[in-house]
Amino acid sequence: MTTLTDDTLPVTPRAMRDEMIVFVLMALLLAAVPFTGVYPFFVMQALCFALLACAFNLLIGYGGLLSFGHAMFLGTAGYCSAHALKVWALPPELGILVGIAAAFVLSIITGYISIRRQGIYFSMITLALSQLLYFIYLQAPFTHGEDGIQGIPQGHMFGVFDLSKPTVLYYVVLAGFLAGFLLIFRIINSPFGEVLKAIRENEPRAISLGYRTDQYKFLAFVLSGTLAGFAGSLKVFVAQNASLTDVHWTMSGEVVLMTLVGGLGTIFGPVVGAFVIIAMQQYLAGFGQWVTVIQGAIFVVCVLTFRRGVIGEIAHYFRRSL
Amino acid sequence: MQALYAQLLVGLINGSFYALLSLGLAVIFGMLNIINFAHGALYMMGAFVAYFLLNLGGINYWWALLLAPIIVGIFGMILERTMLQWLTGLDHLYGLLLTFGIALIVQGVFQNYFGSSGLPYAIPDQLKGGMNLGFMFLPVYRGWVVVFSLVVCLATWFLIEKTQLGAYLRAATENPTLVRAFGINVPRMITLTYGLGVGLAALAGVLSAPINQVRPLMGADLIIVVFAVVVIGGMGSIMGSIITGFALGVIEGLTKYFYPEASNTVVFVLMVLVLLVKPTGLTGRAA
C-alpha cells in the first residue's frame, strides 16, 4: 500500500549511535555559527523553519499523513505569542508557553476533525481548515489584519537573557530548536514511534494486531501541531512580527517542500531541507515571482526523480538510517 | 429583497464554477487516482487563453469558449504524458505534490508577466444588458453562465453515465487491468480523461473572465474552496459533485446576504460540520 520509504531499517543500537553522532556534530556546527561571521538572522530563521519541518515530518514521515495546513499552527502560535508579549506584556518564556498552548488546543480540534478521513482527503481537509483560520485571522481585530502584529518587544528570557542581543537570541533559539529536535527524535524511537511506522506501512495489519490506529494518528497529529506551534513562537522573537503570510497556504506548501527536499521520513532531512529552501529564498529574493516558479520546479523534480531527498539518498547509499 | 436575489444569483454563478471544477477533479481522481492541485492554475489559464485570443488574435468570446478548453486540455494532456503518468503505482500524495508544483510554476510565470492585478475582459455584445424579471433585474451574461454551466455539467454526466465511452471509462476506473485485457487502450483513455477534466476547468475560466476579470491568482484561492466542496460531496458520484457544487454556491450566496462576515468561511465551516456528522461525505464511499 503506502510505500514512502522503500527501505525501512529497524532501530538498532548501531543506528541509534550513528544518529546521535550526527546530532552532536549538527549541534556543534550550529553552536559555532556566531563565531563564523555567518548572518545569524538567516540561521535563526532557518532553525525555526527546520523545527517546523521536523514537526511536519513526524506526521508525514512516520505517520504517513500529509498535512497541507501546518501553517495554521505556525501562525496561530505566532499570533498568540505576539499578542501575549505585546498586549499582555508577558515575559518571553510565558509568551512562548501561550503560543504552544494555543497550538495544542488548535491541534486537538483540527486533529479530531481531520483524522476522520484518510489519504488524500486528509490533505484536503487540513488545507481547508488552515484556509478557514486564514480568513478568521484576516477579520479578527487582535491580528490587525493585513498589517499584522508589529514591533514585538523581545524582553529578557527568565529575567536573565537579553533577547535584544543577537548572540543571546541566537543561542536561545538554538536551544529551543535542539530541545524540540531531541523530543521528536525521542518520539520516533519510542514504542509509540514504532507503532506509527507500522500504521504507515500497513494500517489494516496494525488494526488486526489490536492497535487503535486512530488514537495513534490523533496523538501524532497533536504532537506535530504543538511542536509546529513551538516553532511559530520562536519565530516571533526572530522576526519581531506576526503576519498573515505565516498562516497562508503558501507557507504550508513551503514546509512540505523543505521536508521533501531533505527527505520524507528521515530524521535530519527536514533540517537540511529548511536550510536549502531558506538560503534559496535569501539569494533569489531579487527575482520576484521567479522564486515561486523555482520552488514549483523543485517540487516537480523531487517528485519525479528524487523522492528520497538529500538525506534519504545519503542514508540509502550508506545503508544507514539518518 | 432585490439584494437577496442578487446574492442568490452570485451564489449560483460561484456554484457553477464549483460544480465544473469539482466535476473535473472527480473525473480525474477516478481515472488517475490523483487530486489535481493544478486545477485552479489551469482554470486561470483558460481565462488567460480567452484574453490572449481576443487581444492578440481578435478571436471572439464564442470561439474562445470552444478553443480555450481545447488548448488548455492539450496542455494538460502533455503534462499527463510527460509527468503524471510516471506516478502510477506510487502513493496518492506524490500526485498532489507534483500537481502542486505545476500550479506554483504556472501561477508564478503568469504573475511575473501580469502582476497580481486584474485584466478586463468585455462581455460579448450578444449577452450585454439585462432583463427585468419583475422580482429582480437579471444581467443576461450572468444568467447565461448559470444555464450554460448546468448544460455542460449535465452533458458530462450523460457522457460518463450513459454512453459507450463512459462505460469504458467507468470500467477502467474499477479495474484497469481487466479493461486492457479486452483490448481497450487504457493509458490513452487516462490521458483523454485528464484532458477532459482540465478542459472543464478552462471552460469555467473562460466563463468567469468577464465577471471576475482575468488574474494570475484567480484560481489559487478558488481551488481550496473546491477541495472543501469535494470533501463535502465526496468524489464517488458525478451527479453528487454537480449538486453539491451548485448547492454550496447558493448557501454561500445566502450567507453573503444574511451574515456577510462569514461568506468567506461558510463552505469550510460546512465541511467541518459534515465531517463531524457523516465523515464519509454526503455522497461518498469510504476513502
Automatic annotation (TrEMBL), chain B:
Transmembrane segments: 6-27, 34-54, 60-79, 91-110, 141-160, 190-211, 223-251, 258-277
GO function term, MF aspect, one: transmembrane transporter activity
GO terms for cellular component: plasma membrane
Topology of this chain in the membrane: Multi-pass membrane protein
Record keywords, A-Z: Amino-acid transport, Cell membrane, Membrane, Transmembrane, Transmembrane helix, Transport
Main location (coarse class): membrane
Any GO BP annotation: amino acid transport
Subcellular localization(s) per the UniProt record: Cell membrane
Family the UniProt entry places it in: Belongs to the binding-protein-dependent transport system permease family. LivHM subfamily.
Name of the protein this chain belongs to: ABC transporter permease
